[in-house]
Every structure is written in C-alpha cells, then in structure tokens.
C-alpha cells in the first residue's frame, strides 16, 4: 500500500485545537524544507490565511468566548450533511416512487447549496427556509422517503443553536465567531491543497523524499484523531447517562 497522508476531521476540532494542529502542521512543513517538498507556492497561499486565523482566535480569547457556539454549529452541520446523504441514498431506492420523491428533495438541497459554510445568521435563516419548503411544498415527498425525522432533527439543532447564540453571545462576539468560521474554511482548503499535492508527488516521484514528513504528520494526525474519538466517547456516555431512568 502506497504512502499517503491520513485524513483528519478538521471541522470537529475546537477553535484552539484547530489552530494548534495547523501550527504543528506549519512548523513541520517549514522544518522539512518546503522547497525540497515542492510546496513552496502552496505554502505562500497558506501562510496569510494562517495569520488570519491566529488574529481571529486572539480576539476570541480576549472576548472570553467559549466553544459552545462552535459545537452547536457542528451539530447542525452534521445533521444537514446526514439529511443530504440520506436523500442521495433514497435516489437509489428500489421503489421508483421513492426515487422520484428523493430526486425532488435533492433539487431543494441543491438550491441551498453547502449551507454549513455560510456565516452563522445566514445559515440559520437558510436552514429555516429550506425546512419550511420541505414541510409544505415537499411534505408528500418527505413522507414517501421517510425522511421527516431528519428534517425534524435539523430544525431542533438549528433552534438550539439560535437560542444559544441569542442568550449567550453579544453582537460583537457573534461577529468574532463568524469571522473565525470563515477563516477556518479557507485555511482548511489551503491545508488540503498542500496535502493533496504531497500525496500526488509521492505517487509521481516515489516515497523517498517525502517519507519523513508524511510519517511525522501522520503521527500528529493520529494524536488529534484520538482526541476527537475520546471526546465523542465521553459525549456518547453522557447522553446515555442523561437518558437513564431515575431510580
């Protein structure tokens, strides 16, 4: 099996974790000689976005904003992706009536695009608009595909996010978090451009010039993946405990 940079779910990292990982990545890249790795042009694009994230995070730290809003946003983003994937799966259903209903729902999600990359308030409004459309114009299609539960869960997640934002965060704080979200998307894209290039160069040129960098980066990725897995496990355990009957 050929050498490859492992995947890391960057979106599920909290702001501090995300910036620390990107710092680790940047430091490793610089110490490994970007010219020798043939990624100096991609790094030149990456560096100013990294600086933007550093500045955005500094404002968040000074504002004493927690990661609660980021976590609530991640929940609704994950549910939206699940709904979109469920519709895509229903398009391949054995029942042609279900297929056609799913195709119509797919037109709706396609119209709204990747909602999760929008600024917070725009995302909240877009989700509400999409859900209203599905529950009215496309109610029969939701029933035919059995996806009403997904839509209800997305509404619940979106309402929870909006309530948290309104009750816990000032207008200035929300603007700060909004900027951080946008910068993270841009930095993740620049990061992916570099890692994809290195993977391609390994395939073209062989592993010798890249093995040390790839192995060291994968070691860091494993560490952050373990952190995410541990947090997911704790959250699942807490959810079970909360649902347990009181005796």
Structure characterization notes:
By secondary structure, the protein is mostly helical. It folds into 2 domains: 10-65 and 172-237; 68-168. The protein has helices spanning 15-31, 34-37, 40-63, 68-90, 96-112, 120-136, 139-145, 148-168, 171-205, 211-243. The radius of gyration is 21 Å and the shape is globular.
What's the count of strands? 0
How many domains make up the 3D coordinates? 2
Give the H and E element order.
HHHHHHHHHH
Question: Overall mean pLDDT score?
Answer: 88
* Uncertain segments: 239-247
Class per helix and strand makeup:
mainly alpha
Instruction: Return Rg in Å.
Output: 21 Å
In short:
With 247 residues, this protein is mainly alpha-helical. It contains ten helices and no strands.
List the helices and strands and how they pair.
Layout: H1 15-31, H2 34-37, H3 40-63, H4 68-90, H5 96-112, H6 120-136, H7 139-145, H8 148-168, H9 171-205, H10 211-243
Helix pairs in contact: 1-3, 1-10, 3-9, 4-5, 4-8, 5-6, 5-7, 6-7, 6-8
């Amino acid at each position: 099996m050929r050498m490859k940079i492992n995947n890391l779910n960057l979106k599920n990292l909290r702001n501090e974790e995300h910036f620390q990982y990107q710092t680790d990545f940047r430091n490793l890249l610089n110490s490994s000689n970007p010219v020798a790795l043939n990624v100096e042009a991609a790094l030149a694009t990456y560096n100013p976005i990294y600086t933007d994230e550093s500045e955005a995070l500094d404002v968040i730290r000074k504002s004493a904003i927690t990661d609660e809003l980021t976590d609530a946003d991640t929940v609704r983003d994950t549910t939206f992706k699940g709904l979109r994937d469920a519709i895509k799966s229903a398009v391949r259903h054995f029942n042609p009536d279900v297929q056609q209903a799913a195709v119509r729902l797919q037109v709706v999600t396609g119209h709204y695009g990747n909602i999760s990359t929008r600024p917070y308030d725009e995302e909240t409004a877009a989700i509400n608009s999409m859900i209203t459309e599905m529950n009215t114009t496309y109610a029969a299609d939701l029933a035919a595909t059995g996806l009403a539960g997904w839509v209800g869960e997305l509404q619940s997640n979106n309402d929870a996010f909006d309530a948290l934002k309104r009750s816990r965060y000032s207008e200035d704080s929300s603007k700060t978090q909004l900027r951080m979200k946008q910068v993270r998307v841009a930095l993740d894209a620049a990061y992916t451009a570099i890692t994809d290039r290195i993977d391609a160069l390994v395939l073209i040129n062989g592993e010798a010039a890249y093995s040390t960098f790839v192995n060291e980066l994968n070691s860091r990725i494993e560490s952050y993946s373990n952190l995410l897995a541990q947090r997911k496990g704790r959250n699942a355990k807490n959810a079970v405990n909360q649902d347990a009957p009181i005796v």
